[in-house]
Amino acid sequence: MTGWQNIKANLRVIFMAFEIEFRQSFTDAFVLFGIIVQPMIVAFMALWMLKDQVAHYAIFVVVGSAMTGLWTTLLFQGGNSITGERWTGTLEPLTCTPAPLRAVVSGKLLASISQSLLSIVFCYTFISLMMGLPLSIAKPWLFAGSIVLTVVAFIAFGLIIGSLFIINPDVQRFQNGLEFVVYIFSGFLFPIALLPMWTTPFSYILTPYWAARALHAASSGTGSNGEIYFCWAMLILFSVIYAVISKFLFRVILRKAREDATLNMQ
Amino acid sequence: MEKIKLNIKIFFEGAYLSYVGLFRWLRPSTYLATLVFSPLTQMLFFVLIGTFAQGNDKAYFYVIGNALMNAAMSGIYGVTMSIGGDRWDGTLPYLFGAPANRMTVFLGRAFMHILNGMIGVLVGLMWGWLLFHIDYSATNPWALLLTILVTTFSTAGLGLLMGCIGLITRNVMFVNNTVYFVLLVFSGANLELATLPTWMQIVSNYLPLTRGIASARLIIAGHGLTEVIPLLLEEFGIGLFFAFLGYSLFCWFEITAKKRGTLEVF
Description:
Shape of chain A: globular
Helix content of chain B: over 70%
Structural class of chain B: mainly alpha
Order of helices and strands of chain A: HHHHHHHHHHHHH
Largest interface: A-B, 32 and 33 residues
Structural class of chain A: mainly alpha
Radius of gyration of chain B: 19 Å
Number of helices of chain B: 10
Helix content of chain A: over 70%
Oligomer: heterodimer
Number of strands of chain A: 0
Number of domains of chain A: 1
Distance between the termini of chain B: 40 Å
Number of domains of chain B: 1
Largest sheet of chain A: none
Number of strands of chain B: 0
């Protein structure tokens, strides 16, 4: 198969996995909770708590709350993207098909993250219509660009989370706690300057941090274009790093499947 | 007398076995992740938003509110999973086939989670002392313990009702998560109730936790037990009401499921 045919085949796998995952998870009440209910409740609380305390607080809360929806969906849907196959007994057959496992998981992650983008729409609608607060995006084109890069970066992050959960189930036990850890370290609803200095490097290696920074800056207009471009560069850099790491992790998964034959065991 | 002794035995055996059954997969890391790490991260998130908005002097407000939310975590999720677990694990027909007193079996499901919830609240308050230097010097420890006990009981009452809903719906986690987040808003854990719209204040009056949190804040501020007794009596009454509603639903479910042969229909 030539390089171009290979890319076409992989894109087809990604699209098929995307379609199946999209259809399946839209009927999952847990997913709907993560996309709709939780971000709106977080938005309501944050609005009430930050009222009149932060400049452009309404749009700041919309973006921050929507980011919580994006991350929660990525953590639970993306984190379980491979483990879910184990639960349904399809993981071993999946690893034996000629289609690359990473392409399948990427398609599933794309579906989850695309769905979770709805949380931005719901938070925006909730705050502007129901709470009666005026909302406007200061730099719409830069905001749109930040969204695209956020999706790419989240897919790369999801590949790492999903593979880590399958390689070491002990990591998954901390899944619930990791939800708020990333809310905190990524500065979704407050600046990371509130945290002790030693935590800053952890924030810097998280793509949700750069995504939140770019989206906040583009929506509120509080950051310069240069700052937003810098966040984009960091998003791209860490997406590449995550993709390289995930390639290694997926190799470990496939080796375990073939050598240990324990892939389907909980 | 024999009957009373038998019911007490069933209560404690049922409480212990349902707890062991729920955590049969339990390892210390799982327990720590679920009941220490996860509540800590949630507390940190809300305390940091709160202090970002209102300054460090207000940290006590969010620490106490979120520490008490740990009661809801055990009371709602733990109790619901203990009751609903019988359906998922296929033990419901045996339970309903046994001649054991239903009230004893039903209430026994909450017992261990009340203890668990109390430990969770104390751990939360300890985190507040360690991380935010909350001053407990004026606190009457026995009054605080009683408050925690009553609050945990009332949330477990709500958990018993949610558990019964878990017997008739597949989306119990959606319902649980929504109820938990609604409590976060309406209980006053993170928002000053007096600042909320009137209709929200009315709703919060009928929910568990509201008075428990208010009572804990008063006790930690140095008020005596006699001043919070009315609040605690109301909190206890609300817990009893929800437990009674749950028990009624449990009995109705048993009769209906036996009549229709739908004990394990999903």
